[in-house]
From TrEMBL:
Its main location: cytoplasm. Its cofactor is pyridoxal 5'-phosphate. GO terms for biological process: protoporphyrinogen IX biosynthetic process. This is Glutamate-1-semialdehyde 2,1-aminomutase. SUPFAM superfamilies: PLP-dependent transferases. Keywords: Cytoplasm, Isomerase, Porphyrin biosynthesis, Pyridoxal phosphate. Residues 1-27 are annotated as: Disordered. The modification N6-(pyridoxal phosphate)lysine is found at K292. Pathway: Porphyrin-containing compound metabolism; protoporphyrin-IX biosynthesis; 5-aminolevulinate from L-glutamyl-tRNA(Glu): step 2/2.
Amino acid sequence: MLESLKKMFSGNEGDMPVSTGSKPDISREKSAELYEKAKNYFPGGVNSPVRAFKSVYGTPLFIQKGDGCFVWDADGNQFIDFCGSWGPLILGHNHPKVRDKVTEVMQNGMSFGAPTALENELAELIIKNNKFVEKIRFTSSGTEAVMSAIRLARGYTGKDKIIKFEGCYHGHTDSLLVKAGSGLVTFGETSSAGVPKSFAQETIVIPLNDKDAIKAAFEQFKGEVAAVIIEGIPANNGLLMQDVEYIKYLENICKENKALLIFDEVITGFRLGFEGAAAHYGVKPDIVTYGKIIGGGLPVGMYGASAEIMGHISPDGGVYQAGTLSGNPVAMAAGIAQLTELLRSGFYKELNNKASEFAESIQRFATARNYKLKVFHVGSIFWLAFTDKDKIQSADDIDPTSMEKFKVLHRELLNRGIYIGPSGYEVGFVSAAHTKIELEKAKRAILESLDVVFRNK
Ligand SMILES: *Cc1c(COP(=O)(O)O)cnc(C)c1O
């Protein structure tokens, strides 16, 4: 920890000033007006459901611009942002290096549907600095990357069944919109209308952090399992940290059963470090998927594996997968510019230190006040959980009634200029653009808001 940083966050959190209570609501008229309009055009007024503010107070803020760690809404309110477009913006909003590279490349046209040197450049940046992939394929979203990885695993192994974990999100592909049925090991039940039951039958859903469950699944479906898919560190349903030992167990049981281990690193890739969660644990997944950060804010996904496994993808092999805009030059440019910054020496160390001190200082305050709050964090990802459990490692460990507290917290934070994802199941992200000054401001706003949350209980 840098000394100066330590000083910034030190002090007895128990002595922090108590807020005078709930803050009056900021003006949200323009956003509300835009939302009314949007409802005429889009189901729920949005193009992705979590944006609709269904589990918090009020209606969505319409964002006008972002710069560094700040966003501004249509009413001109300024916020310190911890959503970061749900993870991609590890350098903050509108980073000059990313913006300049994108504008430069755009001058030459935006898509050709033919190879460009920029694809090679981004691939080289990734493959040279990542021991988990030898060959890759770019897609235009994380969902597509995961969908393709699943198809590849099935094509490669000649088996059909997939094991996934309750509490992991892998995008909205049919075979993964499946939740656990009753019983330890069961076929999944679809978690969305429109997913055929027969698809769900190919997906087995088990709890995280449970060796018996995975063992039983492999016994029950002996010789049928193509792959086990897990989020590097599950971060879409709270932050469900797994023990290294458990992940190594998964790696071994997959090997024993000739099933592939797929690491969905769409959030954790390039976030925990350049090589994501695989390097964090020291395991070697067979297929890895990336998204979010890899595109610097533009739509990019990717899946990769050994050259041998990737040899099964068309046109080399029989597993078909394609994309009109895959690897398009503008998105590649953003990825190149962003990943180049991440490779600077000390980048992750500085970011992760800053983020962990931020998280821990909030925790110290909550502990000093006996608030039932845990700030789980890893790298620059944090999750505010209203719980007194020391560990939350599976979806079942989360108390749904705690989300009422999150609702109050979210409103108080917006009214104090802090923007976080509008659901208590979502994690927050610290970016390189959050300076110590802004983190200190954000911390104070969070502490004041917690006082309100716990006095209104
Ligand atoms: C966001 C996410 C996806 C889906 O990516 P999209 O780009 O939204 O399609 C898949 N897996 C994980 C782990 C994610 O966090």
